[in-house]
Amino acid sequence: MKTICLIPGDGIGKDVIPAAVQALQTLKLDLSFVQARAGFDCFRECGEALPEATLDLLRKSDAALFGATSSPSGGMKGYRSPILALRRELNLYANLRPCQSLPGDFSKPGIDLLIVRENSEGLYSGRERREGETAIAERIITRAASERIMRVACEQALRRAAQRGSPPVVTVVHKANVLQVSDGLFRECALRVAQDFPQVTVEELLVDAAAMKLVKSPQSFDVLVTTNLFGDILSDEASALVGGLGVAPSANVGEGTPVFEPVHGSAPDIEGQGIANPVGALLSAAMMLDTLGLVPAARRLREAVHATLAAGIRTPDLGGAAKTDEFTSAVCRRLV
Ligand code: NAI
Ligand code: MG
Question: Which pTM does this prediction carry?
Answer without folding.
Answer: 0.95
